[in-house]
């Protein structure tokens, strides 16, 4: 089956943050020259990129399954490219968050957060009625990277299990791996995961010093990354 859609999800490493060529529509900035666009051109397919800067593996899981649910007729013709982000990130639900041009109606109550950072400090920003006494909650507790990885691997397993049950083509990779934030594979749940379709090199590491002003892969690296993923696809699926 030919690939007609390349669906990409991730964080700022996959939404093209920092690239010079942009488009602005209704207040939303879209970065052009992302690797997903170059990869889609290799298949002569449609580029569907739902990555968003600063977001979590929880959002990646949620939004990817939303797209799957709403596009059942396209799955046989879709390559899913899933970039995993720092496991410390998560989402909180805030019914008081105002909508804005960058957030769709279906997402307007989801607030991208991080344990021990925005996730708990956001309570003040999004004050809401609750049955939980905030004095009983430890706002300063930061789970370890491994504890957060245990959660993120469950999202990976959920997506992978669905992909493989439906014979859907997919690639996973990490946007970055550093001592403070990486998908720790020394977790029991990773015994259940098939790493054959993980591209092992982290995207940011591949860039070396070829970075934008905000330390993200530049245009040259985007093209190179698309070539790497395409070669990996051909190795695994042809």
Describe this structure in words.
The protein is α/β, with parallel strands linked by helices and about 240 residues long. It has a single domain, classed as SGNH hydrolase (Rossmann fold, 3-Layer(aba) Sandwich), CATH 3.40.50.1110. Helix content is about 35%, strand content about 15%. The protein contains seven helices and eight strands. The strands form three sheets. The protein has a four-stranded parallel β-sheet, with helices on both faces. It has a two-stranded antiparallel sheet with strand order 2-3. Strand 2 and strand 3 (about 30) form a beta hairpin. Helix 2 (about 35-45) packs across helix 7 (about 220-235) and helix 3 (about 55-70) runs parallel beside helix 5 (about 145-165).
CATH superfamily: SGNH hydrolase
Q: Gyration radius, to the nearest Å?
A: 18 Å
What characterizes the major β-sheet? 4 strands, parallel
End-to-end separation = 11 Å
The CATH class: Alpha Beta
* Helical/strand content category: alpha/beta
Task: Report the CATH topology name.
Answer: Rossmann fold
The gist of it:
With 238 residues, the chain is an alpha/beta fold. The chain contains 7 helices and 8 strands, in the order E-H-E-E-H-E-H-E-E-E-H-H-E-H-H. Helix 2 (35-43) crosses helix 7 (219-237) and helix 3 (57-70) packs parallel to helix 5 (145-165).
């Amino acid at each position: 089956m030919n690939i007609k859609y390349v669906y990409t999800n991730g964080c700022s490493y996959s939404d093209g943050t920092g690239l010079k060529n942009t488009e602005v529509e209704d207040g939303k900035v879209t970065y052009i020259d992302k690797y997903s666009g170059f990869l889609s051109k290799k298949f002569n397919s449609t580029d569907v990129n739902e990555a968003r800067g600063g977001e979590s593996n929880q959002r990646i899981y949620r939004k990817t399954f939303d797209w799957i649910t709403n596009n059942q007729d396209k799955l046989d013709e879709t390559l899913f490219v899933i970039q995993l982000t720092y496991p410390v990130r998560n989402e909180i639900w805030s019914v008081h968050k105002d909508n804005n041009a960058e957030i769709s109606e279906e997402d307007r109550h989801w607030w991208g957060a991080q344990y021990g950072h925005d996730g708990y400090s956001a309570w003040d920003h999004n004050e809401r009625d609750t049955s939980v006494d905030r004095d009983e909650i430890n706002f300063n507790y930061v789970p370890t990277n491994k504890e957060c990885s245990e959660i993120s691997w469950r999202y990976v397993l959920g997506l992978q299990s669905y992909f493989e049950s439906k014979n859907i083509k997919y690639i996973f990779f990490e946007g970055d791996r550093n001592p403070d934030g990486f998908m720790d594979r020394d977790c029991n749940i990773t015994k259940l995961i098939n790493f054959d379709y993980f591209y092992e090199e982290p995207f940011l590491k591949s860039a070396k010093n070829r970075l934008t002003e905000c330390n993200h892969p530049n245009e040259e690296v985007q093209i190179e990354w698309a070539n790497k993923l395409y070669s990996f696809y051909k190795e695994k699926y042809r």
